[in-house]
Amino acid sequence: MGIAALLCLAIVLSASSAARAWLPTKHPIIRGVNLGGLFVVEPWMMNDRWASMGCAGLNDEWQCVKSLGQKAADAAFKRHWSSWITKADIDEIVSYGLNTIRIPLGFWMKEDLVQSDEYFPRGGFKYLESVVRMAKKAGLYVILDLHAGPGGQFANQQFTGHSVSTPGFFTSANYERACQFLEWIAKIKHTNPNFATVGTLEVMNEPRSVTDEQRASLRNEFYPNAYNRIRQVEDDLNIAQEKRLHIQMMATSWGEGDPDLSWGGHSPYLALYDDHKYLVWDTGVPATRRDYMYHSCYNNVGAGSNSNDKPLLVGEWSLGVRDGTNSEFNLTRSDAVEWYKGWFAAQLHDYEMQKGWVFWTWKIDQLDGQNDFRWGYQRAVKAGVIPTNPAKAIAMNICDNYK
Protein backbone atom coordinates (compact mmCIF):
# COMPACT_ATOMS: atom_id res chain seq x y z
CA MET A 1 0.00 0.00 0.00
CA GLY A 2 1.31 3.43 -0.91
CA ILE A 3 2.08 6.25 1.50
CA ALA A 4 -1.04 8.18 0.49
CA ALA A 5 -3.25 5.20 1.18
CA LEU A 6 -1.62 4.58 4.52
CA LEU A 7 -2.10 8.19 5.52
CA CYS A 8 -5.74 8.09 4.50
CA LEU A 9 -6.28 4.86 6.40
CA ALA A 10 -4.74 6.42 9.48
CA ILE A 11 -7.16 9.31 9.15
CA VAL A 12 -10.12 6.99 8.73
CA LEU A 13 -9.32 4.82 11.71
CA SER A 14 -8.13 7.56 14.01
CA ALA A 15 -10.04 8.84 17.00
CA SER A 16 -9.98 12.44 15.87
CA SER A 17 -13.23 14.35 15.70
CA ALA A 18 -12.81 14.72 11.93
CA ALA A 19 -12.92 10.95 11.56
CA ARG A 20 -15.95 10.36 13.76
CA ALA A 21 -18.28 10.16 10.77
CA TRP A 22 -16.11 7.39 9.33
CA LEU A 23 -15.45 5.32 12.42
CA PRO A 24 -17.40 6.88 15.30
CA THR A 25 -15.49 5.49 18.24
CA LYS A 26 -12.71 6.44 20.60
CA HIS A 27 -11.21 2.96 20.11
CA PRO A 28 -9.41 2.32 16.80
CA ILE A 29 -10.06 -1.44 16.85
CA ILE A 30 -13.24 -2.66 15.15
CA ARG A 31 -15.33 -4.68 17.61
CA GLY A 32 -18.60 -5.76 16.13
CA VAL A 33 -21.32 -8.24 15.35
CA ASN A 34 -22.93 -9.46 12.16
CA LEU A 35 -26.64 -8.93 11.74
CA GLY A 36 -26.90 -12.37 10.21
CA GLY A 37 -30.32 -13.65 9.25
CA LEU A 38 -31.82 -10.20 8.75
CA PHE A 39 -31.67 -9.68 4.98
CA VAL A 40 -30.26 -13.11 4.09
CA VAL A 41 -32.10 -15.72 6.14
CA GLU A 42 -30.15 -18.84 7.14
CA PRO A 43 -32.74 -21.31 8.50
CA TRP A 44 -30.18 -23.46 10.35
CA MET A 45 -29.75 -20.75 12.98
CA MET A 46 -33.31 -19.40 13.09
CA ASN A 47 -35.70 -22.31 12.68
CA ASP A 48 -38.37 -20.82 14.95
CA ARG A 49 -38.47 -17.58 12.96
CA TRP A 50 -38.42 -19.47 9.66
CA ALA A 51 -41.37 -21.60 10.73
CA SER A 52 -43.31 -18.51 11.84
CA MET A 53 -42.85 -17.13 8.32
CA GLY A 54 -44.49 -20.24 6.86
CA CYS A 55 -41.23 -21.63 5.51
CA ALA A 56 -40.60 -24.62 7.81
CA GLY A 57 -38.75 -27.40 6.00
CA LEU A 58 -37.66 -25.14 3.15
CA ASN A 59 -33.94 -24.67 2.66
CA ASP A 60 -33.53 -21.06 1.57
CA GLU A 61 -35.19 -17.80 0.58
CA TRP A 62 -35.66 -18.93 -3.03
CA GLN A 63 -37.62 -22.01 -1.95
CA CYS A 64 -39.67 -20.00 0.54
CA VAL A 65 -40.73 -17.37 -2.00
CA LYS A 66 -41.49 -19.99 -4.64
CA SER A 67 -43.56 -22.00 -2.14
CA LEU A 68 -45.54 -19.14 -0.61
CA GLY A 69 -45.98 -17.12 -3.77
CA GLN A 70 -44.57 -13.63 -4.25
CA LYS A 71 -47.29 -11.64 -2.49
CA ALA A 72 -47.48 -13.84 0.61
CA ALA A 73 -43.70 -14.15 0.76
CA ASP A 74 -43.22 -10.39 0.57
CA ALA A 75 -45.62 -9.94 3.48
CA ALA A 76 -43.86 -12.62 5.55
CA PHE A 77 -40.43 -11.14 4.93
CA LYS A 78 -41.60 -7.62 5.74
CA ARG A 79 -42.80 -8.87 9.12
CA HIS A 80 -39.40 -10.49 9.61
CA TRP A 81 -37.38 -7.44 8.52
CA SER A 82 -39.33 -5.16 10.83
CA SER A 83 -38.80 -7.29 13.93
CA TRP A 84 -35.58 -9.34 13.74
CA ILE A 85 -33.36 -6.32 14.50
CA THR A 86 -34.97 -3.42 16.36
CA LYS A 87 -33.80 -0.28 18.13
CA ALA A 88 -33.59 -2.37 21.31
CA ASP A 89 -31.03 -4.61 19.58
CA ILE A 90 -28.98 -1.63 18.38
CA ASP A 91 -29.02 -0.10 21.87
CA GLU A 92 -27.98 -3.43 23.40
CA ILE A 93 -25.12 -3.79 20.91
CA VAL A 94 -23.82 -0.35 21.89
CA SER A 95 -24.23 -1.10 25.60
CA TYR A 96 -21.89 -4.09 25.21
CA GLY A 97 -18.98 -1.90 24.13
CA LEU A 98 -19.25 -2.72 20.42
CA ASN A 99 -18.68 -0.11 17.72
CA THR A 100 -19.49 -1.90 14.45
CA ILE A 101 -22.21 -3.87 12.70
CA ARG A 102 -21.79 -5.84 9.48
CA ILE A 103 -25.00 -6.22 7.49
CA PRO A 104 -25.17 -9.14 5.01
CA LEU A 105 -27.19 -8.30 1.90
CA GLY A 106 -28.56 -10.25 -1.04
CA PHE A 107 -28.18 -8.84 -4.54
CA TRP A 108 -31.96 -9.07 -4.91
CA MET A 109 -32.42 -6.00 -2.71
CA LYS A 110 -31.85 -4.09 -5.97
CA GLU A 111 -35.02 -5.51 -7.39
CA ASP A 112 -34.43 -4.71 -11.06
CA LEU A 113 -31.52 -7.18 -11.01
CA VAL A 114 -33.85 -10.11 -10.29
CA GLN A 115 -34.71 -12.09 -13.40
CA SER A 116 -38.19 -13.41 -14.19
CA ASP A 117 -37.26 -17.00 -13.32
CA GLU A 118 -35.71 -16.12 -9.93
CA TYR A 119 -37.52 -16.15 -6.58
CA PHE A 120 -36.56 -13.59 -3.96
CA PRO A 121 -38.48 -11.33 -1.56
CA ARG A 122 -39.20 -7.73 -2.48
CA GLY A 123 -39.34 -4.57 -0.41
CA GLY A 124 -36.22 -4.92 1.74
CA PHE A 125 -34.51 -1.61 1.05
CA LYS A 126 -36.62 0.57 3.34
CA TYR A 127 -35.82 -1.79 6.21
CA LEU A 128 -32.10 -1.57 5.44
CA GLU A 129 -32.45 2.20 5.49
CA SER A 130 -34.15 1.96 8.88
CA VAL A 131 -31.36 -0.19 10.36
CA VAL A 132 -28.54 2.05 9.14
CA ARG A 133 -30.46 5.10 10.37
CA MET A 134 -30.61 3.55 13.85
CA ALA A 135 -26.92 2.67 13.61
CA LYS A 136 -26.07 6.24 12.66
CA LYS A 137 -27.98 7.63 15.63
CA ALA A 138 -26.25 5.12 17.92
CA GLY A 139 -22.78 5.97 16.56
CA LEU A 140 -22.10 2.55 15.03
CA TYR A 141 -19.74 2.00 12.12
CA VAL A 142 -21.43 -0.04 9.36
CA ILE A 143 -20.02 -2.60 6.93
CA LEU A 144 -22.35 -3.50 4.06
CA ASP A 145 -21.56 -6.93 2.68
CA LEU A 146 -22.75 -8.43 -0.62
CA HIS A 147 -23.35 -11.73 1.11
CA ALA A 148 -25.39 -13.46 -1.58
CA GLY A 149 -24.37 -12.94 -5.17
CA PRO A 150 -26.31 -13.53 -8.38
CA GLY A 151 -26.17 -17.18 -9.36
CA GLY A 152 -24.81 -18.20 -5.97
CA GLN A 153 -21.09 -17.93 -5.18
CA PHE A 154 -20.73 -21.07 -3.02
CA ALA A 155 -22.37 -24.44 -3.65
CA ASN A 156 -25.00 -25.83 -1.28
CA GLN A 157 -25.05 -22.86 1.09
CA GLN A 158 -28.13 -21.20 2.57
CA PHE A 159 -26.28 -17.90 2.86
CA THR A 160 -26.41 -17.50 -0.93
CA GLY A 161 -30.21 -17.26 -0.84
CA HIS A 162 -30.45 -20.12 -3.34
CA SER A 163 -28.60 -23.29 -2.42
CA VAL A 164 -27.42 -24.84 -5.68
CA SER A 165 -25.09 -27.75 -6.38
CA THR A 166 -22.96 -25.72 -8.80
CA PRO A 167 -22.24 -22.04 -8.14
CA GLY A 168 -23.43 -19.84 -10.99
CA PHE A 169 -21.80 -16.60 -9.92
CA PHE A 170 -18.58 -17.02 -11.89
CA THR A 171 -19.78 -15.64 -15.22
CA SER A 172 -19.39 -12.24 -16.84
CA ALA A 173 -23.17 -11.75 -16.78
CA ASN A 174 -23.43 -12.33 -13.04
CA TYR A 175 -20.29 -10.32 -12.34
CA GLU A 176 -22.06 -7.47 -14.13
CA ARG A 177 -25.17 -7.85 -11.97
CA ALA A 178 -23.02 -7.80 -8.84
CA CYS A 179 -21.18 -4.68 -10.02
CA GLN A 180 -24.49 -2.94 -10.68
CA PHE A 181 -25.56 -3.76 -7.14
CA LEU A 182 -22.30 -2.37 -5.73
CA GLU A 183 -22.60 0.84 -7.78
CA TRP A 184 -26.15 1.28 -6.50
CA ILE A 185 -25.15 0.84 -2.85
CA ALA A 186 -22.11 3.11 -3.25
CA LYS A 187 -24.25 5.90 -4.67
CA ILE A 188 -26.81 5.50 -1.88
CA LYS A 189 -24.07 5.62 0.75
CA HIS A 190 -22.82 8.95 -0.56
CA THR A 191 -26.20 10.59 -1.25
CA ASN A 192 -28.51 9.32 1.50
CA PRO A 193 -27.72 10.87 4.93
CA ASN A 194 -29.05 7.79 6.72
CA PHE A 195 -26.03 5.88 5.41
CA ALA A 196 -23.50 8.34 6.85
CA THR A 197 -21.69 5.83 9.09
CA VAL A 198 -21.36 3.19 6.37
CA GLY A 199 -17.60 3.06 5.82
CA THR A 200 -16.94 -0.31 4.15
CA LEU A 201 -18.50 -2.13 1.22
CA GLU A 202 -17.56 -5.78 0.79
CA VAL A 203 -17.77 -6.80 -2.85
CA MET A 204 -18.47 -10.53 -2.30
CA ASN A 205 -18.72 -12.74 0.74
CA GLU A 206 -17.04 -16.16 0.63
CA PRO A 207 -16.82 -16.91 -3.10
CA ARG A 208 -15.89 -20.55 -3.67
CA SER A 209 -15.01 -21.45 -7.25
CA VAL A 210 -14.85 -25.01 -8.56
CA THR A 211 -12.31 -24.56 -11.38
CA ASP A 212 -9.03 -22.74 -11.87
CA GLU A 213 -10.65 -20.72 -14.64
CA GLN A 214 -13.35 -19.47 -12.28
CA ARG A 215 -10.79 -18.57 -9.65
CA ALA A 216 -8.75 -16.64 -12.21
CA SER A 217 -11.82 -14.79 -13.46
CA LEU A 218 -12.73 -13.77 -9.92
CA ARG A 219 -9.30 -12.24 -9.47
CA ASN A 220 -8.75 -10.84 -12.97
CA GLU A 221 -12.27 -9.77 -13.91
CA PHE A 222 -14.61 -9.38 -10.96
CA TYR A 223 -12.39 -7.85 -8.27
CA PRO A 224 -10.86 -5.08 -10.41
CA ASN A 225 -14.17 -4.30 -12.12
CA ALA A 226 -16.05 -4.14 -8.80
CA TYR A 227 -13.37 -1.92 -7.28
CA ASN A 228 -13.20 0.40 -10.29
CA ARG A 229 -16.97 0.69 -10.62
CA ILE A 230 -17.32 1.77 -6.98
CA ARG A 231 -14.50 4.28 -7.36
CA GLN A 232 -16.10 5.62 -10.56
CA VAL A 233 -19.31 6.33 -8.65
CA GLU A 234 -17.24 8.27 -6.13
CA ASP A 235 -15.40 10.12 -8.90
CA ASP A 236 -18.67 11.09 -10.54
CA LEU A 237 -19.99 12.41 -7.21
CA ASN A 238 -16.72 14.28 -6.48
CA ILE A 239 -16.31 12.48 -3.17
CA ALA A 240 -13.26 13.68 -1.23
CA GLN A 241 -10.54 11.08 -0.73
CA GLU A 242 -10.99 10.94 3.04
CA LYS A 243 -14.73 10.30 2.63
CA ARG A 244 -14.41 7.35 0.29
CA LEU A 245 -15.39 3.80 1.07
CA HIS A 246 -13.10 1.05 2.13
CA ILE A 247 -13.59 -1.67 -0.48
CA GLN A 248 -13.32 -5.12 1.03
CA MET A 249 -12.38 -8.46 -0.52
CA MET A 250 -11.76 -11.89 0.95
CA ALA A 251 -8.12 -12.27 1.99
CA THR A 252 -5.69 -14.71 0.41
CA SER A 253 -6.22 -17.03 3.38
CA TRP A 254 -9.80 -17.64 2.21
CA GLY A 255 -8.33 -19.84 -0.53
CA GLU A 256 -9.50 -18.14 -3.72
CA GLY A 257 -6.14 -16.71 -4.64
CA ASP A 258 -4.41 -13.45 -3.82
CA PRO A 259 -6.75 -10.53 -4.60
CA ASP A 260 -3.76 -8.20 -4.83
CA LEU A 261 -2.65 -9.91 -8.04
CA SER A 262 -5.48 -7.97 -9.67
CA TRP A 263 -3.31 -4.89 -9.09
CA GLY A 264 0.13 -6.31 -9.80
CA GLY A 265 0.64 -7.57 -6.25
CA HIS A 266 -0.04 -4.26 -4.51
CA SER A 267 -3.07 -3.31 -2.44
CA PRO A 268 -5.24 -0.69 -4.15
CA TYR A 269 -6.24 2.52 -2.43
CA LEU A 270 -8.35 2.01 0.72
CA ALA A 271 -8.65 -1.74 0.26
CA LEU A 272 -9.64 -3.84 3.25
CA TYR A 273 -9.29 -7.61 3.52
CA ASP A 274 -11.64 -10.09 5.15
CA ASP A 275 -10.64 -13.29 6.93
CA HIS A 276 -13.18 -15.74 8.37
CA LYS A 277 -11.98 -17.91 11.25
CA TYR A 278 -14.09 -20.94 12.08
CA LEU A 279 -12.20 -23.70 13.89
CA VAL A 280 -15.37 -25.78 13.67
CA TRP A 281 -14.39 -26.46 10.03
CA ASP A 282 -10.61 -26.38 10.41
CA THR A 283 -9.56 -30.03 10.47
CA GLY A 284 -5.92 -28.97 10.74
CA VAL A 285 -6.41 -28.09 14.40
CA PRO A 286 -7.01 -31.08 16.74
CA ALA A 287 -10.44 -30.85 18.37
CA THR A 288 -9.34 -30.48 21.98
CA ARG A 289 -9.71 -27.61 24.38
CA ARG A 290 -6.00 -27.10 24.71
CA ASP A 291 -5.34 -27.18 20.97
CA TYR A 292 -8.13 -24.71 20.28
CA MET A 293 -6.81 -22.36 22.94
CA TYR A 294 -3.21 -22.64 21.80
CA HIS A 295 -4.15 -22.09 18.16
CA SER A 296 -6.21 -19.00 18.98
CA CYS A 297 -3.47 -17.55 21.16
CA TYR A 298 -0.56 -18.10 18.80
CA ASN A 299 -1.95 -18.62 15.31
CA ASN A 300 -1.46 -14.97 14.28
CA VAL A 301 -4.40 -14.67 11.92
CA GLY A 302 -2.57 -12.17 9.73
CA ALA A 303 0.17 -14.68 8.93
CA GLY A 304 -2.24 -16.78 6.87
CA SER A 305 -2.63 -14.09 4.23
CA ASN A 306 -0.37 -12.46 1.73
CA SER A 307 1.73 -9.77 3.39
CA ASN A 308 -0.03 -7.21 1.19
CA ASP A 309 -3.46 -8.20 2.59
CA LYS A 310 -3.44 -5.31 5.00
CA PRO A 311 -5.39 -3.95 6.71
CA LEU A 312 -7.04 -7.23 7.69
CA LEU A 313 -10.34 -7.62 9.50
CA VAL A 314 -11.75 -10.90 10.84
CA GLY A 315 -15.23 -10.38 9.46
CA GLU A 316 -16.71 -13.64 10.73
CA TRP A 317 -15.87 -15.99 13.60
CA SER A 318 -17.70 -17.79 16.38
CA LEU A 319 -17.37 -20.10 19.35
CA GLY A 320 -18.57 -23.04 17.27
CA VAL A 321 -16.70 -26.32 17.69
CA ARG A 322 -16.73 -29.78 16.11
CA ASP A 323 -19.56 -31.20 18.17
CA GLY A 324 -19.44 -34.92 18.73
CA THR A 325 -15.67 -35.17 18.36
CA ASN A 326 -14.76 -34.46 21.96
CA SER A 327 -16.95 -34.34 25.07
CA GLU A 328 -14.69 -31.56 26.40
CA PHE A 329 -16.81 -29.13 24.38
CA ASN A 330 -20.20 -30.21 25.75
CA LEU A 331 -22.34 -27.32 26.94
CA THR A 332 -23.63 -29.44 29.83
CA ARG A 333 -20.22 -29.59 31.53
CA SER A 334 -20.00 -27.66 34.77
CA ASP A 335 -17.01 -25.68 33.48
CA ALA A 336 -18.41 -25.02 30.00
CA VAL A 337 -19.13 -21.33 30.54
CA GLU A 338 -15.70 -20.69 32.03
CA TRP A 339 -13.87 -22.47 29.21
CA TYR A 340 -15.79 -20.76 26.42
CA LYS A 341 -15.24 -17.46 28.20
CA GLY A 342 -11.50 -18.07 28.01
CA TRP A 343 -11.63 -19.15 24.39
CA PHE A 344 -13.51 -15.98 23.46
CA ALA A 345 -10.71 -13.99 25.10
CA ALA A 346 -8.04 -16.01 23.29
CA GLN A 347 -9.59 -15.29 19.90
CA LEU A 348 -9.75 -11.58 20.69
CA HIS A 349 -6.07 -11.71 21.61
CA ASP A 350 -5.35 -12.83 18.04
CA TYR A 351 -7.84 -10.76 16.05
CA GLU A 352 -7.08 -7.46 17.77
CA MET A 353 -3.53 -7.72 16.44
CA GLN A 354 -5.21 -6.85 13.13
CA LYS A 355 -7.94 -4.24 12.55
CA GLY A 356 -10.41 -6.10 14.72
CA TRP A 357 -13.31 -8.50 14.43
CA VAL A 358 -17.00 -8.98 13.74
CA PHE A 359 -18.63 -11.94 15.50
CA TRP A 360 -21.06 -14.28 13.70
CA THR A 361 -23.74 -13.50 14.66
CA TRP A 362 -25.75 -11.18 16.93
CA LYS A 363 -29.00 -13.12 17.25
CA ILE A 364 -30.02 -16.76 16.84
CA ASP A 365 -32.89 -19.03 17.82
CA GLN A 366 -32.30 -22.09 19.95
CA LEU A 367 -30.18 -24.69 18.16
CA ASP A 368 -31.27 -28.33 18.44
CA GLY A 369 -33.54 -27.37 21.29
CA GLN A 370 -30.83 -25.87 23.48
CA ASN A 371 -29.59 -22.41 24.37
CA ASP A 372 -26.43 -22.70 22.28
CA PHE A 373 -24.60 -19.42 22.87
CA ARG A 374 -21.69 -20.37 20.63
CA TRP A 375 -23.16 -18.74 17.52
CA GLY A 376 -25.07 -15.85 19.11
CA TYR A 377 -23.31 -12.91 20.76
CA GLN A 378 -26.47 -11.78 22.53
CA ARG A 379 -27.04 -15.23 24.05
CA ALA A 380 -23.37 -15.54 24.99
CA VAL A 381 -23.42 -12.28 26.95
CA LYS A 382 -26.54 -13.35 28.81
CA ALA A 383 -24.92 -16.72 29.57
CA GLY A 384 -21.87 -15.01 31.10
CA VAL A 385 -19.51 -16.25 28.37
CA ILE A 386 -18.87 -12.86 26.76
CA PRO A 387 -18.38 -9.86 29.06
CA THR A 388 -20.55 -6.77 28.72
CA ASN A 389 -17.47 -5.01 27.37
CA PRO A 390 -14.92 -6.97 25.27
CA ALA A 391 -12.09 -4.97 26.82
CA LYS A 392 -12.62 -7.10 29.93
CA ALA A 393 -11.81 -10.22 27.91
CA ILE A 394 -8.54 -8.71 26.69
CA ALA A 395 -7.66 -7.86 30.29
CA MET A 396 -7.88 -11.56 31.22
CA ASN A 397 -4.48 -12.17 29.57
CA ILE A 398 -5.73 -15.71 28.98
CA CYS A 399 -2.86 -16.66 26.70
CA ASP A 400 -0.39 -16.40 29.58
CA ASN A 401 -1.77 -19.78 30.64
CA TYR A 402 -0.89 -21.44 27.31
CA LYS A 403 2.74 -20.56 26.69
TrEMBL record:
Catalytic reactions of this protein:
Successive hydrolysis of beta-D-glucose units from the non-reducing ends of (1->3)-beta-D-glucans, releasing alpha-glucose
Asked if Coiled coil is a keyword of the record, the answer is no
> One biological-process term from Gene Ontology?
cell wall organization
Q: Which locations, inside or outside the cell, does it occupy?
A: Cell membrane
What's one GO MF term for it? glucan exo-1,3-beta-glucosidase activity
Q: Where is the signal peptide?
A: 1-21
Q: Which residues cross the membrane?
A: none
SUPFAM superfamilies to which the protein is assigned, alphabetical: (Trans)glycosidases (SSF51445)
Q: Is Transmembrane one of the keywords UniProt gives this record?
A: yes
Record key words, sorted: Cell membrane, Cell wall biogenesis/degradation, Glycoprotein, Glycosidase, Hydrolase, Membrane, Signal, Signal-anchor, Transmembrane, Transmembrane helix
Name the coiled-coil region(s). none
The Glycoside hydrolase family domain, residue ranges: 75-364
- Which EC numbers characterise this protein's activity in its record? 3.2.1.58
Q: How does it sit in the membrane?
A: Single-pass type II membrane protein
UniProt GO cellular component terms? plasma membrane
* One Pfam family in the UniProt entry: Cellulase
Regarding protein family, the annotation reads:
Belongs to the glycosyl hydrolase 5 (cellulase A) family.
The UniProt function text for this chain reads: Glucosidase involved in the degradation of cellulosic biomass. Active on lichenan.
Q: What name is this protein filed under?
A: glucan 1,3-beta-glucosidase
Q: Which organism is it from?
A: Marchantia polymorpha
